[in-house]
Amino acid sequence: MTTVKVSLNSIDKVKSFVNDISGFKADFDLVAGRYVIDAKSIMGIFSLDISKPIQLNIYADKDVDQILESIKPYVVE
Fold first, then answer.
1. Are 1 and 61 in contact (CB under 8 A)?
2. What span, in angstroms and rounded, lies between the C-alpha atoms of 69 and 36?
3. Cβ–Cβ under 8 Å, residues 59 and 27
4. Rounded distance, CA 4 to CA 56, Å?
5. Which DSSP letter does residue 62 get?
6. How many degrees, rounded to 5, is the angle at CA 69 between CA 67 and CA 74?
7. DSSP 4-56
8. For the chain, how long is the longest CA-to-CA vector?
9. Nearest to 12 by CA among 47, 45, 58, 56
10. pLDDT digits (tens, 9 = 90+) for 20-75
């Protein structure tokens, strides 16, 4: 599992983020406090507080570098 923090603080960012990760076979979870949401679910993401960075868990055995490259615009340190 790979974990990064992402910022999805606008509707357009959420849409493009979901489009970017939907092309991968890996599973993605967004974790905010005690809530765990499927990151490929736009409705699920909007149930979170998107004004703050959210933890993204990536469950992938391969393509991790490709995934990280495609989500680079959303990653915050």
1. no
2. 23
3. yes
4. 5
5. S
6. 90
7. EEE---SHHHHHHHHHHHHTSSSEEEEEETTEEEETT-HHHHHTS-TTS-EEE
8. 31
9. 45
10. 999 999 999 999 999 999 999 999 999 999 999 999 999 998 889 999 999 999 99
| Rounded alpha-carbon distances, angstroms, from residue 30 to 4, 11, 14, 35 | 10, 16, 12, 8
pLDDT for 66 equals: 95
Among the listed residues 1, 3, 4, the one whose alpha carbon sits nearest the alpha carbon of residue 77: 4
The number of residues making up the chain comes to 77
Nearest to 30 by CA among 51, 14, 18, 45: 45
